[in-house]
Amino acid sequence: MQLKQSSGNNLFDKQLIQKYNLTGPRYTSYPTAVVFNEQYNSGNHRKNLLSCYEASVNKPLSLYVHIPFCDTLCFFCACNKIATKRREKADVYLDYLEQEMQLQAALIPDGREVEQLHLGGGTPTFLTHEQMRRLMKMIAKHFNLIGDEKRDYSIEIDPREAAPETINLLAELGFNRFSMGVQDVQKKVQQAVNRIQPIELTAKAIKQCRRSGAKSINIDLIYGLPHQTHESFKDTLTQVIQLSPDRLSVFNYAHLPHLFTPQKRINEADLPSADEKLRILEMTIEVLTDAGYVYIGMDHFAKPDDELAKAQQQETLQRNFQGYTTHAECDLLAMGVSAISLINHCFSQNVKTLDAYYHQLDQGQIPVMKGYQLDRDDQLRKMVIQQLACHFVIHKQQVEVAFDICFDDYFSNELQQLNSFITDGLVEVLPDTIVVNDKGRLLIRNICMVFDAHLNQQTKKQFSKVI
Which CDD domains would you find in this protein's record (predicted)? Predict the structure, then answer.
């Protein structure tokens, strides 16, 4: 079944969005991180890697490395970061990061090719050129990096500190995908969130990425920030579209100052109303689809010839902690503070503070704080939720063959819960498939929640609104 692309006009139904605009996960994992527990520790992680050592010899690997430092604090940020002007702090961090790499690599077969690499943060371009070269040498020493076209090596860059020579260095080191935060190009909005970034800087960075042979360029935007209006954000989109990024992530700002301290510096009275946010969202979908971008799902858009759009058409798209990915077959090994691995149906998350990270490594331990081992039911539900989140369809027979079940019997309660979505024209339940209609695509998180066995009233409080 080939996925049908939707037009912007078919996606947005204000009445239904208001009805279903509840809190819920983004499903970058299943189960979500709120289910992880401290009974799963570094010993479990080590045992898990060793248990699948032989079977994984020829399996490709995805690496994630978290660089937590930022030069300047953005008030909207909900990431695990440390704002500092002291670049030498990264030298100490790299010392410990190499210790972790050595411990982790000892549990991974030498021959496994690293098809996917992602540097996230914080801001990886906080690192000096010397530090970046050192980091990549460390990774190459302990893991099997590749140099051919199969590689998907991406990095998050800050246009404010990504001079042409920095981007040239990143390309020289093997990076071929670049993602950059923009959020909004209006000066008043930028001042309110402490991120002053003239559009000229972003344009210059994109131009240099293209000169350096980038396979793909992503821009992050956020709607719902202080002083944003329908008209101001339309102007932002117009200016960004002129830069012609391959992918766009347009996130809904979730104002949760009780969870993220920097957000306390944002004046709540300056935030757009709920109605205005919906107007901005509707306009965003129309403007981007009119400009030729395909709605991938969960805030993401891509050009039709981008690998994300192609993978969605071929139903090979997956989601992980970096969002949508085309490397579903890879184990994900993550390093650095707060980083989350997924290997052999087991999640493991590192400690979240530098002090705890350094202490664990001083003890010679992989700095895992908590994790979770998926049981058979989790694996089954993960497959169902992945199909929904990535392709807007569930193929019952695929699930039945993979897990030796009768889909309609196993999910009889869930099928009952879908009735309101069916009545509202969001979902169709057919003998062989469950299909999400156009108007259900923006509400895909709600539909995924039906199949989430771990979700309850308490865990729902830890998530943002779905729109």
Answer: Radical_SAM (cd01335)
Asked whether the beta carbons of 171 and 214 are under 8 A apart, the reply is yes
User: 6 falls in which pLDDT band (50, 70, 90)?
Assistant: low
Looking at 1.10.10.920, 3.40.50.720, 3.30.70.1050, 3.40.50.2000, the CATH number of the domain 1-31+375-467 comes to 1.10.10.920
Whole-number mean pLDDT of the chain? 93
**Residue 2: which pLDDT band, with cuts at 50, 70 and 90?**
very low
Q: Per-residue pLDDT averaged across 207-214, rounded? A: 96
Element (H, E) at 434: strand 433-436
Q: Which helix (H) or strand (E) segment is 285 a member of? A: helix 274-290
d(CA 7, CA 33): 33
Predicted TM-score (pTM) above 0.90: yes
CA distances from residue 172 to 140, 176, 287 in whole angstroms, order as listed: 14, 9, 36
pLDDT tens for each residue of 167-179? 999 999 999 999 9
Q: Where are the domains of the chain?
A: 1-31+375-467, 33-333
| DSSP class per residue in 384-399 | HHHHHHHHSEEEHHHH
Beta strands in 278-417 (DSSP E): 294-297, 300-302, 318-320, 323-325, 331-335, 340-343, 346-350, 368-373, 393-395
Element at 458 (helix H, strand E): helix 457-460
Class of domain 33-333: alpha beta
What the block records as the tokens of 302 is: 């891509």
